[in-house]
Amino acid sequence: MKKWLLMTIFVLIIGVLAACGGGNETSGGKEGKEKVVIGYFPNIDHAPAMIAREKGYYEEALGENVEIEYRTFPDGGTFMTALKSGEIDTGLVGPGPVLNNYSNGANVKIIGGASTGGTVVVASEQSGIENLEDMKGKTFITPGIGCTHDVQFETFLMEKDLDDLASARIGGSLKHVTGNPATYQGMFETGQVDLAAVPEPWATILIENGANVVVSTEEIAYGENLPNVVLVASGNLIEENKETVQGLVKAQQKAIDFIHNNQEETQDIVIKAIKDLTKQEMDKEIVAKAMDRMTYTTEIDEEVLKEFGQSSFDLEFLKETPNFDGLVLKSN
After folding, report:
1. Are 16 and 110 part of one and the same domain?
2. Keywords of this protein's UniProt record, alphabetized (predicted)?
3. Which residues face 36 on adjacent strands?
4. Which of 154, 150, 210, 206 is closest to 178 using CA atoms?
């Protein structure tokens, strides 16, 4: 079975998982315990959550009086909806959805980093794209409109200042569509799309299946400096239980330390965690290559986040000039 078909099955299963995860309450745990619901995606850039879950770091940091529940999500939009509605309390998500929701008044804050880098723009073999000029009039795909990877790619194009080298949404010649990265290989093969601005491990999967890298992680806007996944929490959790928030940050740091010191075991845990959720096993060599394009860190460069947010406004994803003061929770 081709990898793209496996990935298509993968995304369908994830969708079912997300749908089946509804109805969780964030309080009133067993035997009067406080309940904390943690969300994340079954992607390798969310490895800190998988490691912390597997190793019991959340339980260790939050204590025996806290009951922990987990939910997985297919995209940042559904994650943020769950966070704002109180279905989850905290978790890992890309900065794009967080910035967009915060600018619209959502009571959320970033409490730590998770990973940086990993966004790559690749072109299908049959697209004929070999340089930037070849992109004109082509179709590109990203996981969502105004998502982290979309903003990175469109900012990269904007900085090149080439005629028509922009999304048709803002007057350029490029057609923009969206979809889950697990389906991109099939869309490449059928000629539905020419380019993809995609996170790992999907970039490596596409490359292994013949796609060409046209914009590397190092070249794309905000490349290796932008947090591509952050640890975010609801304002209610932050206001009502600072000790829990501190414990989450502590568990995150411990998970990232483990990743740095145990690469081989980390890959095994991530592969198993994804297989448990999706019933599909990722190739270890692909996971290793994908992880090489990322850096796992709890550090947050707030200025880069603000610049990224300004880019979202310049690209007309945000209607008003953003103010992201207070978005990143300052450590005591």
Report:
1. yes
2. Cell inner membrane, Cell membrane, Membrane, Signal, Transport
3. 68
4. 150
Question: How far, in Å, CA of 231 to CA of 228, rounded?
Answer: 10
Same domain, 74 and 89: yes
pTM confidence score? 0.82
Residue 198 lies in domain: 120-215
Condensed to tens digits (0 to 9), the pLDDT of residues 261-314 reads 999 999 999 999 988 887 778 899 999 999 998 999 999 988 999 999 999 999
Question: How high is the pLDDT of residue 332?
Answer: 54
User: Do 124 and 112 have their domain in common?
Assistant: no
**Structural domain includes residue 315:** no
Q: In this structure, is residue 324 part of a structural domain?
A: no
* Regions of the chain where pLDDT drops below 70: 1-32, 331-332
Domain count, the chain: 2
Query: Are 17 and 99 in the same domain?
Result: yes
CB atoms within 10 A of CB 294: 24
Give the per-residue pLDDT at 228: 86
Q: What CATH number is associated with residue 163?
A: 3.40.190.10
The pLDDT score that the predictor gives to residue 209 is 93
Q: What is the pLDDT of residue 319?
A: 83
Is 323 domain-assigned?
no
pLDDT given for residue 241 in this prediction = 92
Q: What was the pLDDT predicted at 255?
A: 98
